[in-house]
Write a structure and sequence with these properties.
6 helices; mainly alpha
């Protein structure tokens, strides 16, 4: 009989070796990676707001409006303005309540606002009353009855 020792300790090891040599493991890895890419693309596509799929020009209008406002408008105000502009383009009002649309507006608005940082130096005197010197005050404005006096020549 044959007294040769096998290099495999079990049947599973033999099967695994055959899978690797035949290329089955590499093929299955390739299929898994392709499926993961398709799933991520599908997930990214699922995050697209419904109104953009129904009318792609809404996205362009939204981008223009946020760019012009420099990210200083609130999300509800932006949404109302876009709804007003495209009120006849979307038949179902529930499409405007899409959570993905609100997220898209919020992210885009925040990115635009980052481009224009606020300058706090402009606002140091905000809320303060102006300080006037006596020489800056017109004497005619201190007398309430001055306008009732006859004109002097």
């Amino acid at each position: 009989m044959n007294n040769k020792k096998s290099k495999f300790s079990s049947v599973e090891d033999v099967v695994q070796d055959m899978r690797e040599r035949s290329g089955l493991v590499a093929y299955l890895d390739k299929v898994r990676k392709a499926a993961a890419i398709l799933q991520s693309a599908k997930t990214a596509q699922d995050n697209t707001p419904v109104v953009f799929t129904k009318n792609p020009t809404i996205k362009n209008t939204l981008e223009n409006y946020i760019r012009e406002s420099r990210g200083n408008s609130t999300v509800p105000a932006i949404l109302e303005k876009i709804k007003e502009i495209h009120r006849s383009d979307v038949a179902d009002p529930a499409d405007w309540e899409d959570e993905n649309l609100v997220k898209f507006i919020s992210v885009m608005n925040a990115k635009e606002k980052e481009k224009y940082p606020k300058n706090d130096a402009e606002y140091v005197d905000l809320g303060r009353a102006p300080r006037l010197q006596d020489k800056d005050i017109d004497a005619e404005n201190t007398d309430a009855f001055h306008s009732l006096m006859p004109a002097s020549k």
